[in-house]
């Protein structure tokens, strides 16, 4: 019994270490499982938080898919490549820094939120202007912030993806940001409690992540360019571009360099005299000149075949029937660019930089009229004169005095219908008459330049139905402008200012309402944005019948010079006089944003070149006036037209290369 007991005791003692070993092993396994679970939870939460940075590009792809881009599997993979690279990079940084110091979590979460907001703003900029956010655009927006606030509604409240507004998208993604980073914060807290725990394969995970980053970076460097730079991530793209240039692995389009000289260089105005006039009898003798620059008034809404012009716009109809009417192409669909083209006869600078307003003195037809015809120039504007240094530009071309509504009318008498861009036009013309009468009393002819707000966004011109569309509100503004112009002509007639006065009415640019996926202006080369009315009219005087009804803004200055017989001048222009015979013409134009798109029109065709994708599209404006059927241009035709457009772009930049003080 004792022996058995002893044996049993001895046997139990022998089994105890094994039992304890198994117990310790089980405890270790449990701890490893817990550690793995905690670390897995942390990595999953960080992937979700970082992955939220893909949302802006996904929304952008959806927005573009109905308008401009292909959405096959490989296309979407190309568009997302750089964004995935950013997500993986953020995940690797977070996974390798958060558990070392819990304060790293706060830094990374704040940085991620700022990055998400930055990508969302870039997304919206791309939707509106077809180009990534860049320093030039940021600088322009900051410089003109006070004048651009009325445009905030377009930025925030129009559809921005999946049928929702940008404001709603930001709100939803803010909630998603809070949720994902709260989850990551909880996972970080759990992992930090066991701060000495490390996954066995942590080093392997790091190397695997770096390998993925390398592969994504390699793919980004070698990837082809996508339309409107949709493949680019604003954060990653500078690195990719630098590496691509450094390693000479560029697989994108050929450099945008012209191979031909530009076919429409500036030439001396005196050369106009070598061209046959339309009529043998002399043109009417004028003493005064009135320019009315119609803000945002497009051809399609006033004189298109389906518009009842006489019924809707009786003043425009009268002036067009009695005078000379042209469909005029713009140089750049932006106000200050239009002013330059109209008043100097030269194409504008094809970029967001307002170089046109940087010079203290620049040649113009107004200088010629003042010096040779004893005339005095004065400007009146409903638009704010400080915007893009409009007042400085006017002074440089010979308009010494420019008056805004605030200088013409006491505050208590002004209309309250104003925006950040300007004030109501209701009293613009009537309040200017005294200034013109004073010039006339001094024995001089007057050059009066009017800049009404006309149809500029936000189209606050009438008390229309609350559900009225933006296009309807816009056309109501044109109708209001038509009415105000009618009242102006009546007032001029009563004061004896109408006779011997040449009136020039011209749009500065058109306006888009989603016809080709865009709204407002600046970024489109389609007819709704680049064609405007141009009317020459004089009370009771017969003007020549034009040989062609199509023109360009740069034709206005040489035509006015021809009307006033001041063509014997060294003034350089790129347009032609519309009082002369015309051969086959080509009309060039460019977007407000550098190397977004340029176009040329050679009737009946329009060619639009997109720099980002290096593609050329053709439309037959005679058969397809709404530009609904694009034709892809390739081969020799592509090379020839592309070279002409690149030459135009390069020439205009060279023309503005001189410093402002020169």
TrEMBL record:
Domain Sulfatase N-terminal: start-end pairs: 287-565
Top-level division of the source organism's lineage: Bacteria
Record's Gene3D superfamilies?
Alkaline Phosphatase, subunit A (3.40.720.10)
Keyword list (alphabetical) reads:
Membrane, Transmembrane, Transmembrane helix
Ranges annotated as spanning the membrane? 41-64, 76-96, 103-121, 168-192, 204-223
Q: Which Pfam families match?
A: Sulfatase
Annotated InterPro entries: Alkaline_phosphatase_core_sf, GAG_Ulvan_Degrading_Sulfatases, Sulfatase_N
The protein depicted here goes by the name Sulfatase domain protein
